[in-house]
Amino acid sequence: MKRVLFLCTANSARSILAEAILARKGAGRFQALSAGSKPRGEPNPLALRLLVERGHEVRDLRSKSWDEFAGSGAAAVDLVITVCDNAAGESCPVWPGHPVQAHWGIPDPAGEGHDGALDDFALAYDRLAERIDRLLALDEARLEPREWRDAVAAIGRECEGATGG
User: GO: which molecular function terms (predicted)?
Assistant: First the structure.
């Protein structure tokens, strides 16, 4: 089972949404994780509300530091996906296992230019679900690591162009 870590600065909305979506859709194939460089300490209540409305289990979701997944004592991850532009621009820790890294930019549903409405969270969820569906359509077992990296990165680029973020 491949371990996928979604990163966002606060680890309160986008990365939490992505973790929940992949945990359900990729169960048995992927282990979904999320973290932030400066975690807020708790998931955004609207993110949790949306996940519950869409049938996700939220009991174990929590906002956590990426330090839990970095360093010599941490378990290796196979794929690290940044879902916010701030996290993509930050100096990331050294990840055990030399994971594939990609960026899937998703506008912050609670950030500037958004009023933090449930509709903004639903749009972020839908954009993440589209990307995750495309990830699940890949046959990573048959792809060389470089091909898989390129395919995962292409998902972010292609979906960004098609959805505006």
Answer: protein tyrosine phosphatase activity
